[in-house]
Amino acid sequence: MPGRRRSGPTAGFFIMAAALAARLWLLVTLLAPATAVYEDQVGKFDWRQQYVGKLKFASLECAPGLKKMVVATEENVIAALNSRTGAILWRHVDKGTQEGAVDAMLLHGQDALTVSNGGRILRSWETNIGGLNWEMSLDSGSFQMASLVGLQDVVKYVAVLKKTTLTLYYLSNGHQKWGEQLPKSESVQYQMVYSYGTGVLWVLGVVPNSHVNVMTFHVEDGEMVQQVRVSAPWLKSLSGVCGVVGKAVLVCPDSGTRSLFTLALETEEEMKRTPLQALELEFGQGFQPWVLPTQPSPTSASRPQFFLQLAPSHFALLQYRPEGLSLLRSFPQTALVSFGTSGEKTVAAVMTCRTETKGGSVEETLTKSASDESSTQEALICTNQTYTINLYLAETGRRLLDTSITFSLEQNGTRPEQLYIQVFLKKDDSVGYRALVQTDDHLLLFLQQLAGKMLLWSREESLAEVVSLEMVDLPLTGAQAELEGEFGKKADGLLGMFLKRLSSQLILLQAWTAHLWKMFYDARKPRSQIKNEINIDNLARDEFNLQKMVVMVTASGKLFGIESSSGTILWRQYLSNISPDSSFKLMVQRTTAHFPHPPQCILLVKDKKTGRTSLYVFNPIFGKWSQVAPPVLKRPILQALLLPIMDQDYAKALLLIDDEYKVTAFPASRNVLRQLQEMAPSIFFYLVDSERGRLSGFRLRKDLTTELNWELTIPPEVQRIVMVKGKRTSEHVHSQGRVMGDRSVLYKSLNPNLLAVVTESTDLHHERTFIGIYLIDGVTGRIIHSSVQKKARGPVHLVHSENWVVYQYWNTKARRNEFTVLELYEGTEQYNATAFSSLDRPQLPQVLQQSYIFPSSISAMEATITERGITSRHLLIGLPSGAILSLPKALLDPRRPEIPTEQSREENLIPYSPDVQIHAERFINYNQTISRMRGIYTAPSGLESTCLVVAYGLDIYQTRVYPSKQFDVLKDDYDYVLISSVLFGLVFATMITKRLAQVKLLNRAWR
Amino acid sequence: MAAPWLLLLLLAAPGAVQGSGCRAGARGAAAEGCGPTGLLLEHSFETDDNVHFRKRGSLTWNVQDGTITLTQRQLTEDERGRLRDVAALNGLYRVRVPRKPGAVEGLVAAGHVSSFVPACSLVESHLSDRLTLHVDVAGNVVGLSVVTEPGGCRGHEVEDVDLELFNTTVQLQPPLTAPGPETAAFIERLEMEQAQKAKNPQEQKSFFAKYWMYIVPIVLFLMMSGAPDAGGQGGGGGGGGGGSGR
């Protein structure tokens, strides 16, 4: 990191003076703006938030007193969280594909064992620092279960059960102790392994609808001691249904005969049936009941008590004794249950919905549930979103006093999905506990009964899967809005206007003095105490519009409003009825610029399977659903267009085209419909059917029907369409052309309707595979340019902006990543300089292209964008390493000459070199790497020099970039003291010298 | 500069593809054999916005040498009048060709590719249009583009005589081959530069050797004035020297 004082520009000038005649182009590379930040700027303009994803496994039962929990998630992350703050202590991100999926996690003392990649890899982690103790690659075979095995009070091994084998590994080093082939593995499905420190190990397999195979192995040498066949013609599967309780007693529920079957593995050879009626219980209709046992330590027997889930919201705590099963307590209207153990005490945690009426309500709900069968058939519906967790002693089923934790879920329609508890004994020997709750909107809550406060922390893990985001300007402050409103209103007399002006100026003055006072007040306090708390009430646009609201949509259907300068989540909304496989499109219908109308965003959600589309309208600043009723969409929507037509309340008209090519307008006000009718002949849109390789263009008719105008077919048997990208509508291009070395102008071809279509060949042989690039006018369907990149393969990343297209692909012949840039120029004369029309462009643009080698693959790519488009463009390239490279577009310029001439030097063109290098100083996120980056979003700010960047993946990172440096801002370390003292000094000196000169003149006159 | 090169490239590219046209065509599902195939060109211009395609002519696509020719008939009196009407109503003039070069006459099941121009621009261009048939690497028809020359509607009066015969240019456009990184040329250039340097030892002088007469006084001056920035400037100069020595 260079020193604080920047010597670059002076040095650059020095070279320029000396070596002007030599190579000007070298200077360009030398002076290329370094985008790295200074050490003291770290975290000033940027922030990063790290996530782990939705929980798959969690273990709170670390050694007591340790403030951490170990989790494994659906995002293939293994991490430890600080249980006091929720901060990530360490995190390991495995591959994002199925290869990294964690199949099982077991915790033993300080070590966490994980099985991943379908049972291929066994790892042991040191949970304090997250170091890898050892890693073993296992033989292939579908993974069933892993279990810790103890011998005489010491846990020494881990047993891994696969479809055909049972293998024991040492916990200390991962070496294999023994491995045994399981007999008849083609017919028997081995699913469970159990031991309790007696030196034997049971493996349970099932032949569906026939029998259970129970095999006993010696832990020491792997010798099979016994093999028993137990008839169970009603049993289909063991895992997720049966459980082992007490001293190796298998308990299986059967909904067909409405009974529970038990089998003591050590002694019995036949299942013992206990009808449910004997326990005064009944299974829910169509529900697969299952058993939840608990085994506090692998060296001792499981507890004889276990939970049985009878219906989606009905649990029962049962106890096994050799003489039979007995019911300890029934828990109707229950959301989740869990066991926890501390020392000798095992407790059961039960989460129920808290009913509003006090006293007697329990009986009420009980009778209600008994009378109304359907209420127990469905999952628990909790109307007030408030849940209570209570502890019960497992041995007796007695409720422990003062152990209830009540919490409310903020979002409607969310439901708790997982419950983990950690139990500890307080000083007075009473039981205390902490609970980790995960809801179906991927929110993690950590609760503890602590001096009136229930919630310790929460994590919004759905932000690990951001799918779409938009940045919206913040609203004006009251004073600014007042001033703005003055211009908006109709003139009401000279005097009235004058008074209004005076009053608004007064308000401004007042706001300014308040601001000054606050600054003065803050300046006296130590820096650490100043907290700029941002909340929804004091949201206001800053003077350069650098602070914005980031609206994020996540795959789980949760929406977030995040303040961009700090990363604070200001609002969240949950769409509960979103299927997991949906696509989202977020659009800004009304920006913040139309005070007093609130800004308005539209979220279009399409279920990929059913094609059902729904529309949500909301205020992006406050996260409130809009009062405006969105249109009811009966048919799947193929295309949504946001037109520049505005309603009288400045909402842009949204056109939705359904699969019958009918058009729905939103808002469907008379004003909009009239404007649509007027504009209809000039409203064109396109549809892409990538399955059939069909692109088609339509035009709107006056009666809001559509007509087919053009049709292209890219044969799907040869190549399939993988990407269609237009330009960003908000983009401004400042310069219409480029001045060349001979002082003539090369005009850019700026077709706003241009689409870049990328195809990949269906033939994936490395000699014949290719990538096709089509540039198509979206209005006329005219193919402006088509080219193939031979011996190339995807995934293709493409940026389409101004008059250029940059795409990246994998070259199968040279086995490297390559960039190709296409630029479109009209030539040295413009066809029609005043207006652009796709219908009136007889000449095809000139297409220039060049390719480069890039040393890395990329995970995301986007171009910077600024307010007026004066600032030079950079490409922001997300690398798999998690860094974001800011690459000047000048390096990807097809006009880079192979042999530099006088004219190309004049133009500052860098001579062609086939490789584009990655310089670490061009990383905009220094060491703040972003795991599994999926996208980069850029937005202009109020400053021309500054572009706001949000990169998202598993982590979210926000920063600002200055592609042409901060030409419109004084530097951070600008020496105000020096410049003002010089100024004052000069003024002072002028005054003194003036006085001196006067004296001198006077003296001379007297002489 | 680069622009004229590119024009050359554009002209040369179809020629380059022509050689492999037959092979490529034969591989594709569309072309049958290597002989000339016929494509029916149809057009539609109706005053009531309906689409009703009628025969305009037929394209003969010689897959062997990658050329395409068009034979078409004159517009009838009736059609001419209708075209004028459509133009007045700001209607569209559509054209289409079948995707598979099957029978010239009759329906083709594989569907069509179509395009359009505003009818008025066709009228005002005196029926001079340019048709481009885009094909993919395997010789399948991808799209059809039509533009009139000159384009646009400016409201010029057109005489009937000018609306008799189409003045059509037909073009076949296979996809161009996008260039790869040009490493060979780059290495050649580097070698050339090196050779030049070896020839011309004058150029080989280092930065300091060439400009010491400027640097020494400035450094001296800075040292005398005792400016704190002197170190930084010296370093910058050195760095520049290294770069320029290449």
TrEMBL record, chain A:
Alphabetized UniProt keyword annotations: Disulfide bond, Endoplasmic reticulum, Glycoprotein, Membrane, Signal, Transmembrane, Transmembrane helix
Subcellular location per the Swiss-Prot or TrEMBL entry: Endoplasmic reticulum membrane
Subunit relationships: Component of the ER membrane protein complex (EMC).
Signal sequence coordinates: 1-36
Entry similarity comment: Belongs to the EMC1 family.
Topological category with respect to the lipid bilayer: Single-pass type I membrane protein
GO cellular component, one term: EMC complex
Sequence ranges assigned to domain EMC1 first beta-propeller in this UniProt record: 36-461
One Gene Ontology term of the molecular function aspect: membrane insertase activity
A single BP term in Gene Ontology: protein insertion into ER membrane by stop-transfer membrane-anchor sequence
Occurrences of domain ER membrane protein complex subunit 1 C-terminal (ranges): 801-1006
Pfam families: Beta-prop_EMC1_N, EMC1_C
UniProt protein name: ER membrane protein complex subunit 1
Record keyword Endoplasmic reticulum present: yes
TrEMBL record, chain B:
Pfam family, one: ECM10
Signal peptide (from-to): 1-19
A biological process from GO: protein insertion into ER membrane by stop-transfer membrane-anchor sequence
Bilayer topology annotation: Single-pass type I membrane protein
One Gene Ontology cellular component: EMC complex
Name under which the protein is recorded: ER membrane protein complex subunit 10
Subunit structure, interactors included: Component of the ER membrane protein complex (EMC).
Family label: Belongs to the EMC10 family.
